[in-house]
Structure formats: C-alpha cells, structure tokens
Backbone:
DNA sequence: ATGTGACTCATAGTCCGTA
DNA sequence: CTACGGACTATGAGTCACA
C-alpha cells in the first residue's frame, strides 16, 4: 500500500485517458518531463502542491489522484 | 483554492471529530507536534507520504484529506 | 517518447524554545 | 493544549546527459 505508487498509477491512468504524453502533461502542469516520469514510476514523493498542479492539468480533483481503486 | 489550507482544515476537522489533541495525533502519526500545528494552519506543504500517515492515524482514506467539501 | 543516476538548491520535517 | 519563532538536518524540487 505505497501511496507514491498509488499516485503514480493514477496520474498515468488519467494521463493516458486524456491521450497525453508525459511531455505534454509536464508542460501543462508546468513541471519537468523527467519529474513527471519519476512520479508515475512511484519514485518521487510529491507534495500536495505538486499533486494539485497535476490534478489541474489532468482536469480532475486532487483527491482523485490519491484514491486506491484497486 | 489553496490546497494546503484544504488539507489543514480537513485534518483539524477529522482530528476534533475523533477527540484527539494535536499532540496525540502527532504521536499516532509519528510526526512532530509543531509540524501538525503547521499543517492545520495551512502554512506547511506536506508530501503524500505525510498525508498518508495522517490519514492512517485519523482512520480515514488519504484522498479524504484533499477533498474540498466547501 | 520514456527511464535513470547524479546533481544543486529549496524546503520538508525536527527539535529547541516562548507566549 | 495550541500558536509561533529560530536553527538545524533530511529530503523534495527541479534539471541534465544519456541509455
């Protein structure tokens, strides 16, 4: 039950659902390409501010990115 | 729409609903007393790992702490 | 288009206090 | 019991070259 992995999976899922590349998402969220990559792989431990940025770029609520819908 | 303030409000709300003091919550979540204080005041920008710790100590899902239920 | 290690610099998070 | 400050140490933010 690793929260970082949960966030990573949710980001990837919503990103692909929107048909975006990591680079495009990174641009929209005003983040770096490699950083987004790290988040999706569950290696990064992002702050709530980063989660909010990603959620905003993905058009979903921040809380959605923390949900573990196995 | 400050995400930090949202988290702070939710933590405080759930903490008081459980009848815990900040010190007790800090102990349960294995965090520092002053840090929990800062989170509730919305001046801290916690990581998702910290959010998960607090959620666990409060007995709620991590995503609950990011919800803005106006 | 993405994964990865290494890096600098900012800040997350701790610990000492006072009111 | 809580707010708030100041001084620390650990780790996240943000970037790069390269596979």
Residues:
């Amino acid at each position: 039950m690793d929260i970082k992995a949960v966030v990573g999976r949710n980001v990837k899922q919503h990103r692909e659902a929107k048909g975006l590349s990591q680079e495009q998402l990174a641009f929209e969220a005003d983040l770096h390409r490699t950083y987004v990559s790290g988040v999706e792989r569950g290696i990064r431990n992002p702050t709530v501010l980063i989660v909010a940025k990603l959620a905003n770029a993905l058009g979903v609520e921040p809380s959605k990115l923390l949900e573990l819908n196995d």
